[in-house]
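To: structure desk
From: M.T.
Subject: fold request, one chain
Message: Could you run this one when you get a chance? Sequence is below, nothing fancy, just the single chain.
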Amino acid sequence: MRTIILKDSQANGGVISAANVFSAPTNVISLLNPDSQYRIVVYHLECLSVSISGTQEQVLRFDEETNFVTRFNGNAGTIADVVTNSVIIGFTSDESTNTPTIDYYARICFIDD
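Reply: Done. Structure tokens follow.
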């Protein structure tokens, strides 16, 4: 399983596709797509090995102080309101039979000046 945290500087009111992030989006060890190298900034990228035998739990902790402006245009509270610099948390797996179940808590702090 692969986890990624990235900033998409070209949000345009939507989520970036896996094909824009990875060269081969269905391959868990794919390289990043060079066509998007100026669009995304990767803050965290990690491959995890998960077994189907027994209870498996992976704990990820990631702290990163960033300095960029996220511009919102609207009041719906959805990705469509994000105009620039959206933060994306992504998970992918190449296992089609026993797909991993993901539970996560994300705490993101925005400081409004």
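Reply (cont.): The radius of gyration is 15 Å. Let me know if you need anything else for the meeting.
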